[in-house]
Amino acid sequence: MSVGKLTDEMLVEKIRSEDQELYAELVTRYQEPLFRYSRHMIRDEEKAADIVQESFIKAFVNLHGFDTKKKFSSWIYRIVHNQTMNYFR
Question: Whole-prediction pTM value?
């Protein structure tokens, strides 16, 4: 099965067990929508880009803590949301 046809959760399992380089696929899938989400909240393109980048790093570092029985999209959006809220503090 090609990487593009894997669900996010299946991809996370492969990243954990086989190839960390596959994380780039998750970044590709989510970078633009997460950027739009963050930019919508803070109205600052540069800061939104920084927040998304920081969020991807945080997600990668904590990937082993992600429960693959849940949706990856919800998890990564929550990380971006929290990082964006931290910006306001």
Answer: 0.92
